[in-house]
């Protein structure tokens, strides 16, 4: 397989996953906003967190002074200047697919192209929150459909592995980013009463669609330690960081036919390094002060894996 | 359905006279009557959407960048009876053979120039004549034309004539297949009643023609590695490239996917470098190799030409083919056929006048309103004057251009291009059509049955190019037995 094509499918998968994750984060914030009286500094802080998770608050600030729910929703969903906006992710994914068309399933291309054309033909400037909400759901459904096509039709060959690696890396990084932002928020409000924390940890779970799963394992008390454990290393939860990294490793192993060659050694080393970090924290209690640096390190390590990965397969 | 359809003084592919179809269209005509207008509108819509959804688009460039568009599809097919097709097949095989001999000749001994059959300056002043880069090359089968697209038209008497040869990067083959595919999906009824030459298995011919061009120094002579070189997703014919690569099962590569090391071409894969034997390139000569053509080209591969010259890689179509398919050389193709093959051309040209000749020029300038004027270096319907349809200003501006650089222009009588019914906006009306036929060559030559029928959907327009609002039709070549059935 051509390196360029491998890179295209890798980024296609990342962009699809990113669109889905951003849609979910925004959606869950919108639902919450409907449930509680949603004004004041706390609410502003929450919208800020959403922007920080889905793109960059600094970039947002360059354009807007206010944090209005509508503005944020439009910025994350439709703003072309926001490189991580959902419509941009879909367009990138579609162009990635287009330059790998001859090796991906025809249906995968058609569905992605269809979604892209639909978005192109809409003028979303004045969409109400209700319409945006429906849009977010359609993006999630799109991602599920695309993953279904990949699982049910693709040959288990190189391209499939590259798609998987892109997807799991993106997902793991996003969970880390969510935790990072949430940890910062809880620290900012250290003086506040416990109920505020409760609310933050709850939203962290909701952002990754893990609340229901969490309730099956733990009582409905948002204990920081338990939530962190659940999202970082609960191996049965398919969005926990450890689960994602293990799957990246599996996909790489598959690609390499189960062997570590000299050229793939560095990549396996980088993956091992991250796994070891997890093993360490499993056995120690971390406070929310310690968890921040850990997550920073993890995000850097993910970047490093991405870099070594690209180098290994000549994607640079 | 076609009760208000008028053939006027044009040759109509389908209707012999008012309300009377030609014999080979009778069945189709009968079937058409069984559909209601609503049916047809719905089917028409389904067909257009199918193209869009599959991303079968081409890119049109304008000031604000590029837009992806689909080529409009019209469901009234062009049906060609068996015997007529035989003539086309033979005539085009003959023509491509002569054109290939011409290319081999001008880049070697140039006998045809020494013998004065073609004036030397027509070749030597041609901007696509790459003497320096392409002279004396030893190429597989001495074949320069792996894939040709020959454009045919029919005049008011129904006589097929060659309008243009495309020997560089003829596009549109994917549409032949997609038009058929969509037609089968939307109008399965038609196919039960007709026995037509199938398009299945055609790629095995193209594929084996491609692989027969193994370069002499290949180390994988039995299983050579072939790739299709594209300019990328922003190229207007990108879908065509994707389709061909997919159907032939070869890698679709861009310039930066390839590299040349020690005069050998490699592609960059996730497992390192892999040697490439045959490159079917769909980028122009100018962009092929920055070391020998345009220095700023980012689409090509540095050192490619040297690898080609050394016999380490084959490049298809050959480098420098442009000298044989420009609009001036075109006029000499009948002479080439006589010169190289000692045969009479089976399919005539359209008469062509050279405006460089003062007498001819004077005559033509006095009647520009009845002629078609073309820039010999342009393609895609650009820089072209259609006299009978042009305004006074347009004619004047061409008069100036011709006087400025007369050698740049040729003129042809305005042919009353044949027409065929097209169903657009809920009614049938006559539109001008032409036919691009694809000829593939390797060890032997093979003509794809049918081809791409292009239709000028703007009522009265003569321009069929997709970049200028043209559309496509399915083309059916009837089987022999079907003729009497």
TrEMBL record, chain B:
<feature type="domain" description="Circularly permuted ATP-grasp type 2">
    <location>
        <begin position="77"/>
        <end position="456"/>
    </location>
</feature>
<dbReference type="InterPro" id="IPR025841">
    <property type="entry name" value="CP_ATPgrasp_2"/>
</dbReference>
<dbReference type="InterPro" id="IPR051680">
    <property type="entry name" value="ATP-dep_Glu-Cys_Ligase-2"/>
</dbReference>
<protein>
    <recommendedName>
        <fullName>Circularly permuted ATP-grasp type 2 domain-containing protein</fullName>
    </recommendedName>
</protein>
<dbReference type="Pfam" id="PF14403">
    <property type="entry name" value="CP_ATPgrasp_2"/>
</dbReference>
<dbReference type="InterPro" id="IPR016450">
    <property type="entry name" value="UCP005522"/>
</dbReference>
């Amino acid at each position: 397989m051509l390196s360029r094509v491998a890179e295209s499918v890798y980024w296609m998968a990342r962009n699809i996953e990113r669109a889905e994750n951003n849609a979910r984060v925004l959606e869950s914030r919108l639902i919450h906003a409907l449930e509680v009286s949603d004004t004041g500094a706390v609410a502003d802080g929450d919208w800020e967190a959403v922007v920080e998770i889905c793109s960059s608050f600094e970039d947002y600030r360059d354009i807007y002074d206010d944090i209005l729910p509508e503005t944020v929703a439009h910025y994350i969903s439709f703003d072309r200047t926001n490189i991580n906006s959902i419509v941009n992710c879909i367009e990138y994914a579609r162009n990635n697919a287009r330059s790998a068309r001859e090796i991906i399933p025809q249906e995968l291309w058609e569905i992605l192209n269809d979604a892209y054309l639909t978005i192109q033909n809409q003028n979303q400037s004045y969409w109400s929150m209700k319409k945006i909400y429906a849009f977010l759901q359609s993006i999630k459904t799109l991602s599920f459909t695309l993953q279904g096509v990949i699982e049910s039709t693709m040959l288990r060959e190189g391209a499939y592995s590259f798609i998987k690696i892109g997807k799991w890396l993106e997902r793991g990084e996003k969970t880390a980013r969510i935790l990072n932002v949430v940890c910062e928020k809880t620290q900012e409000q250290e003086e506040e009463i416990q109920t505020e924390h409760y609310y933050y940890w709850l939203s962290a779970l909701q952002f990754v669609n893990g609340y229901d799963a969490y309730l099956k394992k733990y009582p409905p008390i948002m204990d920081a330690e338990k939530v962190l454990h659940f999202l970082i290393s609960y191996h049965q939860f398919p969005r926990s960081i450890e689960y994602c990294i293990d799957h990246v490793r599996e996909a790489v192993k598959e690609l390499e036919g189960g062997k570590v060659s000299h050229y793939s050694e560095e990549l396996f080393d980088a993956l091992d390094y991250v796994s070891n970090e997890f093993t360490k924290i499993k056995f120690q209690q971390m406070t929310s002060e310690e968890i921040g640096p850990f997550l920073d390190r993890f995000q850097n390590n993910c970047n490093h894996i991405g870099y070594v990965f690209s180098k290994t397969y000549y994607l640079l | 359905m076609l009760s208000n359809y008028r053939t006027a003084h044009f040759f109509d592919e389908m209707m012999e006279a008012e309300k009377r179809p030609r014999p080979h269209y009778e069945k189709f005509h009968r079937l058409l009557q069984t559909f209601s207008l609503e049916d047809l509108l719905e089917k028409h819509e389904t067909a257009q959407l199918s193209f869009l959804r599959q991303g079968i688009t081409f890119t049109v460039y304008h000031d604000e960048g590029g837009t992806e568009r689909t080529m409009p599809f019209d469901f009234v097919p062009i049906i060609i009876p068996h015997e007529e097709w035989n003539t086309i097949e033979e005539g085009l095989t003959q023509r491509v053979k002569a054109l290939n001999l011409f290319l081999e000749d001008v880049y070697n001994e140039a006998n045809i120039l020494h013998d004065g059959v073609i004036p030397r300056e027509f070749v030597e002043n041609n901007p696509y004549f790459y003497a320096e880069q392409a002279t004396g090359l030893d190429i597989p089968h001495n074949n320069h034309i792996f894939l040709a697209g020959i454009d045919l038209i029919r005049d008011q008497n129904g006589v097929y004539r060659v309008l243009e040869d495309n020997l560089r990067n003829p596009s549109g083959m994917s549409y032949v297949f997609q038009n058929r595919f969509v037609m089968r999906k939307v109008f399965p009824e038609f196919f039960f009643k007709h026995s037509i030459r199938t398009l299945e298995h055609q790629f095995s011919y193209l594929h084996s023609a491609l692989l027969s061009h193994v370069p002499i120094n290949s180390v994988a002579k039995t299983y050579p590695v072939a790739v299709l070189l594209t300019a990328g997703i922003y190229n207007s014919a990108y879908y065509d490239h994707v389709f061909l690569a997919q159907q032939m099962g070869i890698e679709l590569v861009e310039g930066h996917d390839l590299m040349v090391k020690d005069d050998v071409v490699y592609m960059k894969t996730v497992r390192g470098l892999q040697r490439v034997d045959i490159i079917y390139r769909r980028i122009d000569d100018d962009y092929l190799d920055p070391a020998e053509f345009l220095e700023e080209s980012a689409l090509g591969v540095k050192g490619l030409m040297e690898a080609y010259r050394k016999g380490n890689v084959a490049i298809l179509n050959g480098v420098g083919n442009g000298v044989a398919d420009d609009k001036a050389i075109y006029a000499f193709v009948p002479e080439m056929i006589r010169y190289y093959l000692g045969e009479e051309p089976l399919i005539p040209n359209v008469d062509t006048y050279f405006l460089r000749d003062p007498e001819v020029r004077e005559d033509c300038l006095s009647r520009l309103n009845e002629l078609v004027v073309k820039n010999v270096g342009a393609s895609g319907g650009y820089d072209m004057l259609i006299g009978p349809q042009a305004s006074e200003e347009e004619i004047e501006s061409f008069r100036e251009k011709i006087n400025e650089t007369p050698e740049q222009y040729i003129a042809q009588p305005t042919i009353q291009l044949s027409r065929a019914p097209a169903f657009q906006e809920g009614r049938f009306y006559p539109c001008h059509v032409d036919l691009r036929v694809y000829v593939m060559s390797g060890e032997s030559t093979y003509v794809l049955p049918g081809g791409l029928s292009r239709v000028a959907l703007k009522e009265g327009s003569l321009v069929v190019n997709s970049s200028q609002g043209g559309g496509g039709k399915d083309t059916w070549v009837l089987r022999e037995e079907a003729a009497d059935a």
